From TrEMBL:
This is Probable tRNA pseudouridine synthase D. Could be responsible for synthesis of pseudouridine from uracil-13 in transfer RNAs. Keywords: Isomerase, tRNA processing. SUPFAM superfamilies: Pseudouridine synthase (SSF55120).
Length: 439
């Protein structure tokens, strides 16, 4: 199998599944080259509905050069409310044109602000706020600039059809942005949290200089690693590294010596980011499990004995098949053929765990993989019993990501739709065969 880029391997993505050299090129030359639009799945009432019964205002925002967290923070600041009163269903990147829903607690339609990088329209009201996963998926339209082999897209598609058992598909990896594109450390922070090492978690974020970031940032990280001088480090960390500076202010105030001081510093992050750290640790273990399954030559589009499968979501539209991870089926040896037929008809999906306290690992060879990965990471499911916002429930995730691409040329443009929680970059990496920083 073709080995992945070093940065990808640092987050558990070890291989490509296609051998074709791919198209080359780069993405995000300009925000309009990367368009993302949510496939919405959230019921609303009219905007003039009784706010006593429907206290959440729902808006649809198209963002240009602004990520989801930045929009929520600027929106909240402009209105004069806590950012925690702004929620959404999925996080989008900065270097794109993205369209998604947001919900805002206790806000009237005429209070919606005007923001320079966002077009905002009022959709209606709801009795609850948006939560992660409150969408079907995302539609992508992506331009590849300076592709050296644009005709290679067809050959890649053919290989991905073979991998997917007749439908183009890739392993359902968590993409590089889950861990940090230039400095992939969020999973290292999360792994330290899960192990109860609060100081290690803080230093994983403050330290860990990356060759892909500016030299001034690298020097500041090296300084804090060597000295643990929080106050002096504040003079060295660039102001653009606001999360790091906020943690350093906390460490100056508390002294930065006891475990609770380091936990307090981590809790300066917004709650959704605190959850992200542990989610990234779960995601890293998941990626490692998929890479090992690939290396062993086990199929992704159909089960082997010992797998845990889930069935399709019966509430999803017929044209948009989604896995329902709450409807599990353990695949015993005498059920492999039956569940395999369901998988080929898009009625079932092979899964792997996002490990939590109550995770029941698979049996057979897949179970061996899961136990080996956790042992290598020095983790057991019980370690995920964590305080506050760091807690993250266990679940399962389909290991195969099917998609149906439309390919246009001059310039090379790929359009496809993916289910919620999946990453366009894990599709695009197979086509471009470039490093993750070009994605």
């Amino acid at each position: 199998m073709r080995r992945a880029h070093d940065l990808e391997r640092s987050v558990g993505i070890e291989y490509y599944v296609s051998e074709t050299d791919g198209t080359g090129g780069r993405l995000r030359d300009r925000p309009a080259d990367f368009r993302v639009k949510e496939r919405e799945r959230f019921a609303t009432e009219a905007s003039d509905a009784d706010p006593g019964d429907y206290p959440w205002l729902v808006v649809r925002a198209t963002l240009r050069g602004m990520d989801t967290n930045d929009f929520a923070r600027e929106f909240a600041n402009r209105v004069g409310i806590s950012r925690e009163r702004v929620t959404w269903a999925g996080t989008k990147d900065k270097d794109a044109v993205t369209t998604q829903l947001f919900s805002v607690r206790d806000l009237d339609p005429d209070e919606v602000p005007t923001l320079s990088k966002a077009e905002i329209e009022v959709v209606g009201r709801s009795g609850r706020g948006l939560q992660f996963g409150d969408l079907l998926g995302n539609e992508f339209e992506i331009v590849v600039r300076d592709a050296s082999r644009p005709d290679g897209a067809g050959a890649v598609t053919t290989e991905l059809e073979e991998f997917g058992g007749g439908t183009p598909a890739v392993p359902n990896y968590f993409g590089q942005q889950r861990f940090g594109s230039y400095r992939p450390v969020t999973h290292e922070v999360g792994l330290a949290v899960v192990r109860g090492d609060w100081e290690g978690a803080v230093m994983a974020y403050l330290g860990n200089p990356s060759e892909y970031e500016p030299e001034g940032s690298q020097e500041a990280r090296r300084f804090v690693e060597e000295t643990r001088d929080w106050e002096a480090a504040l003079d060295r960390f660039p102001r653009r590294l606001r999360y790091e500076r906020t943690m350093l202010h906390s460490l100056v105030e508390t002294g930065g010596r006891a475990p609770e001081d380091f936990r307090t510093a981590l809790e300066t992050f917004p709650e959704n980011v605190q959850r992200l750290f542990v989610n990234a640790a779960q995601s890293y273990a998941f990626n490692r499990m998929l890479s090992e399954r690939l290396e062993r030559g086990l199929p992704f589009h159909e089960p082997v004995a010992g797998d845990v499968a889930c069935f399709a979501d019966t509430d999803a539209p017929d044209a948009f098949v989604l896995p329902d991870v709450d409807r599990e089926q353990r695949v015993s040896a005498d059920r492999v053929d039956v569940v395999g037929r369901h998988c080929r008809r898009n009625r079932a999906f092979v899964t792997a765990p996002l490990v939590g306290t109550e995770t029941e690992l698979a049996d057979g060879e897949q179970g061996e993989i899961e136990r080996e990965v956790l042992a290598e990471l020095d983790l057991v499911p019980e370690d995920f019993d964590l305080p506050g916002a760091f807690g993250s429930p266990e679940t399962r995730r389909a290991i195969l990501l099917p998609f149906d691409p439309t390919i246009e040329h001059e310039p090379l443009t790929l359009s496809f739709t993916l289910p919620t929680g999946s990453y366009a970059t894990v599709v695009l990496r197979e086509f471009l065969k470039t490093g993750p920083l070009d994605l």
